[in-house]
Amino acid sequence: MQVITQVKELRETMQALRCAGKSIGFVPTMGALHEGHLQLLRASVKDNDITVCSIFVNPTQFNNADDYKLYPRTLDADIELLETTGCDFIFSPSPEDIYPQQTMLQFSFGKLEQVMEGEHRPGHFNGVATIVGKLFNMVQPHKAYFGQKDLQQVAVVRQLILGVGFNIELVCYPTVRETDGLAMSSRNTRLNTDQRETAVSLHQALEQARKQLGQQSIESIKASVTDYLQHKPEVELEYFEIADPLTLQPLSTLTGVQEVALCIAAHVGPVRLIDNLVVNLSEV
Ligand code: PAF
């Protein structure tokens, strides 16, 4: 496995591999890797001749300076983990190399970025689209791998690929969970023992909502999720939505609907967590 830190070297290496007819799989990350990332990497290693993992904590997607500053950075441990996956290249650039000048790019994803993460984290998806677009352009992979935990990000990247015309297949993998059900996230490492225990209530709230889908209205499911989390210490619900899994637009009725995404964001102590479940209504 080779670590590349310079954009120029990455471009030249990828170009040579493409010319040699190699298929390239790409897993973009911000590091602090966990089993969720490793599953994406193993999938890429299985599907492609070459796998590239980027590790870059992207400043332009953070709408909160503390969140950027406190985001876990564990490069040495990440490299050790990546060695176990069969990954071929780690791309770990500096912010100056990625952003030689302040970016002026403005993406608009319409209604998709006006709800949930887009609504609560202004500018977040512009930063995500900017970095993912830059990385796609540098790596030029055949396939790119993302986790379902960031469902709205997946929808934004899908629109980015279609809108710009990147010749890249988007592969989305199910969320990987801890044994108690908490969605794996790099941010979980910032929870203290008590907060870690309470954090599972987000998943429990989603499971409770899933069970209510066949029996209750959207309004009453939302009310019971809010009520359930109100009684959990240190949990502050930001939103719970029942949305279309592709457009992420909130639904007002379940009549005639086949599949829904149950999406949640909450602060547990100082840490903001998100999670979701995609549910086929014929199975509830
Ligand atoms: O999901 C993430 O870790 C980031 O948003 C991504 C896709 C690596 C872009 O910085």
Characterization of the model:
The protein is α/β, with parallel strands linked by helices. It has 2 domains: 2-173, HUPs (Rossmann fold, 3-Layer(aba) Sandwich), CATH 3.40.50.620; 186-277, Pantoate--beta-alanine Ligase, Chain: A,domain 2, CATH 3.30.1300.10. Helices cover 40% and strands 20% of the residues. The chain has 10 helices and 9 strands. It has helices at residues 7-19, 35-47, 65-70, 75-83, 95-98, 116-120, 124-139, 151-164, 193-212, 218-230, and strands at 2-4, 24-29, 50-55, 89-91, 143-147, 169-173, 235-243, 259-268, 271-280. The chain has a 6-stranded parallel sheet with strand order 1-4-3-2-5-6, sandwiched between helices. A 3-stranded antiparallel sheet has the order 7-8-9. A hairpin with a 2-residue loop joins β8 and β9 (271-280). α7 packs across α8 (151-164) and α9 runs antiparallel to α10 (218-230). The longest helix has 20 residues, at 193-212. Pantoate is lined by residues 28-30, 58, 61, 128, 131-132, 150, 153.
CATH topology of the largest domain: Rossmann fold
**What order do the SSEs take from the amino end to the carboxyl end, as H and E?**
EHEHEHHEHHHEHEHHEEE
Number of domains: 2
Q: What percentage of amino acids are in beta strands?
A: 15-25%
- Give the rounded overall mean pLDDT: 97
Main beta sheet strand tally, sense and closure:
6 strands, parallel
Distance between the termini: 45 Å
Largest beta sheet: strand ordering = 1-4-3-2-5-6
Total number of beta strands: 9
Weakly predicted, low-confidence segments: none
Bound molecules: pantoate
What is the correct CATH architecture of the largest domain? 3-Layer(aba) Sandwich
What class, by secondary structure content? alpha/beta
Which class of the largest domain in CATH terms?
Alpha Beta
Percent in helix: 25-40%
CATH superfamily of the largest domain: HUPs
**Tally of alpha and pi helices:** 10
Q: What gross morphology would you assign?
A: globular
CA gyration radius, whole angstroms: 19 Å
